[in-house]
Design goal:
mainly alpha; 80% helix; flat
Length: 334
């Protein structure tokens, strides 16, 4: 029996007031969204606002999306979905209010000076106008990110598993890790940009180096912490040496390995942006510098938003893979 099932059994029937409060909280994001549209549409603008409906469509999209999930959860009696929406509703509502406040301080009053702080409608419009170039830069960023990440992750897994399982290998590799570990990844960028055959390859090496260290340390720790009794029991059952690595050591160390992979992705994203801003001549990081140099700050913010979306999606994907691989941990009491 999972923790969710136990929690449902222990829950008490809600009072009339608690049920009404749940309704208020569930409708709170929709009310805040309507307020954001009212503020944007009714308060006079300080500056000319091109294609004003773009921002309205943006707000309506998320309001409709939230409403669809809410109606589906209520009518379909999906208690877990409704509970999740109830938990996240205050945050969603506040986000709409923050958007409204930012719009008021930029487009309506100019408290935040233009062009350093463009309003959202201006940013979304420039995204649409410059979408071809932004997509090209995003494709280059993704290619660089995944090339460096997978190279570093594969090498890190090989190094970490080997060091964790063999003391002889760890004897030679451990000093290298102790020397390279404290050095920030960005320190190697000037050197790699000089010795690498191309700027792209230099950035791949820098990203892969950061990922390699993170995955190596996590994998080595996970393998080293496997209880010796597991290996003894496996040997008693006739398990061969190479089978103990793949059937005993690695499955037991998977939580540590995925922790290293997640941390490695964070390091890769940071190293990627630094490499693109300093040396690489393409990508979203380069686009940010280029837009800033020409004082086109709406393009700069557009690129930043796309970067945030990409990194969030990649991290979410990695989290889903981790949840799938470690689904045997569900319901465990820690």
């Amino acid at each position: 029996m999972t923790k969710e099932q136990l929690r449902e059994m222990e829950e008490k029937e809600k009072t009339w007031l608690e049920k009404r409060l749940d309704v208020v909280f569930l409708l709170f994001p929709l009310a805040c969204g309507l307020f954001a549209i009212w503020e944007y549409w009714e308060i006079p603008n300080l500056r000319k606002n091109k294609d004003p409906m773009t921002y309205v469509y943006f707000l309506l999209f998320f309001m409709v999306l939230y409403a669809v999930f809410l109606v589906y959860g209520v009518l379909g009696k999906k208690k877990r979905l409704v509970d999740k929406l109830r938990y996240m509703a205050p945050l969603y509502g506040v986000l709409f209010l923050v958007l409204s406040l930012y719009d008021y301080m930029t487009l309506k009053t100019g408290a935040l000076r233009y062009p350093f702080f463009p309003w959202f409608n201006d940013i979304f419009n420039i995204m649409i106008e410059d979408r071809a170039y932004l997509l090209e830069c995003a494709a280059h960023t993704l290619r660089l990110l995944f090339t460096g990440y997978f190279c570093g992750a594969i090498l890190g897994l090989i190094t970490g598993i080997t060091c964790g399982y063999s003391r002889r290998v760890r004897y030679w590799v451990d000093p290298i890790l102790k020397v390279l570990g404290p050095i920030p990844t960005s320190t190697w960028i000037p050197l790699m940009m000089v010795i690498a055959s191309s700027l792209f390859m230099g950035a791949v090496i820098v990203i892969g180096l950061g990922v390699w260290f993170s995955v190596t340390m996590a994998s080595m720790t996970g393998i080293s912490n496997v209880d010796v009794s597991y290996f003894e029991a496996a040997r008693t059952l006739g398990t061969k040496e190479h089978q103990m690595v793949f059937r005993v050591a690695i499955p037991h160390a998977l939580p540590n390995i995925f922790q290293g992979l997640t941390q490695g992705m964070s390091i890769a994203c940071t190293a990627l942006m630094i490499a693109e801003m300093i040396g690489v001549e393409a990508g979203l990081g380069w686009y940010i510098n280029w837009a800033k140099a020409w004082a086109q700050y709406n393009k700069m913010y557009a690129s930043i938003i796309i970067i945030c979306l990409i990194f969030t999606a990649v991290t979410k994907l990695l989290g889903l893979i981790k949840s799938r691989a470690l689904r045997w941990q569900e319901g465990m009491v820690k």
